[in-house]
């Protein structure tokens, strides 16, 4: 077993690290403060093929795997987590279309989404369907040769910059759950915005609540098999971008803290000389490495078609909580200025805090992890 990236993976990492250093880092804090969507940066990532990284080359992607996605998302999130979330959500939608859509849908949507020329958003959660997605109330009724959708979606990340929302709606009775949910490509302009939230973090990307009232879509707006959309999306592993985003924040928090504690002096010493600080730098590094290894393991297993029932929730729980810890430590070790917008520690903490909730709260992932453990899933050496 070799714990190292291949040459091409390292080249990809270096390319995106360089891009993040020159294009994202200098503007990340301002974009966050202004709650401004990083449109230009996302367009450039689209031109470079980064936003379509794991999509097939035939559809404008780079044909890379989830390991490469984890590597890239870490770099982007170290620059700005919200921007990385915009990439992850759009790619997740494009992946569902590519995996389960018709040839026509693939040709129509995937190349433009790969290039971030068309932006996809995910309409799955609702006000009363958060962790319990199958409690969704949005319905799609058959009418003539199309479908009529009614309901609402909450937390639609990328809206209002999105062109299309992959909208999950019930097309069958609850007795058939989970085989009673279908997915539809609904143009963003068909939704009315109910409200934008004032969020703690991830400010560059909005995630409003939106309503659909009697919205008619044609038959070919349905992606995948009728009634099977919820089950099908469970087999798409682009969700590994969530722990990868956490690794990015945890690493950025560590790097900033090493730099600050080396330069800041108190009691005639750099504060980084004090053992009480040094040990914590070591612990922060430990969290970065364990989070990255777990995330890459989950991505690698998914790439090899192996089960991730244990590996994915473990990576999600560990990395997201490590990011919160590291951001919190970064703030503490920056002292008073860490509590201000002079430094990025406060942004890391605000952004990291989202990740134990989004992509499913960690409590739900703890349940999944326990299920896998009790079922005897070992997943360590395969
Ligand atoms: C900024 C942001 C962006 C998002 N983007 C999107 C998006 O683009 N598309 C989309 O569809 N969704 C999105 N989401 C939704 C996100 O996935 C949900 O918020 C999440 O799944 C949790 O749902 P909820 O907020 O309703 O929490 P709830 O389900 O109400 O849970 C509240 C809390 O209860 C506890 N809890 C819940 N279930 C259990 C359990 N089984 N055992 C123990 N404790 C439990 C946890 O502490 C949890 O945090 C986003 C959310 C946010 C905040």
Automatic annotation (TrEMBL):
PROSITE patterns listed in its UniProt record: ACYL_COA_DH_1, ACYL_COA_DH_2
Domain Acyl-CoA dehydrogenase/oxidase N-terminal: 6-116
Cofactors (names): FAD
InterPro entries associated with the record: Acyl-CoA_DH_CS (IPR006089), Acyl-CoA_Oxase/DH_mid-dom (IPR006091), Acyl-CoA_Oxase/DH_mid-dom_sf (IPR046373), AcylCo_DH-like_C (IPR036250), AcylCo_DH/oxidase_C (IPR009075), AcylCoA_DH/ox_N (IPR013786), AcylCoA_DH/ox_N_sf (IPR037069), AcylCoA_DH/oxidase_NM_dom_sf (IPR009100)
Molecular function terms from GO: acyl-CoA dehydrogenase activity; flavin adenine dinucleotide binding
Span of domain Acyl-CoA oxidase/dehydrogenase middle: 121-215
Keywords on record: FAD, Flavoprotein, Oxidoreductase
Superkingdom of the organism of origin: Archaea
Entry keyword annotation includes Flavoprotein: yes
Segments forming domain Acyl-CoA dehydrogenase/oxidase C-terminal: 227-373
Pfam families (UniProt xref): Acyl-CoA_dh_1, Acyl-CoA_dh_M, Acyl-CoA_dh_N
Family stated for the protein in its record: Belongs to the acyl-CoA dehydrogenase family.
Protein name: Acyl-CoA dehydrogenase
Organism: Halorientalis regularis
Lineage: Archaea, Methanobacteriati, Methanobacteriota, Stenosarchaea group, Halobacteria
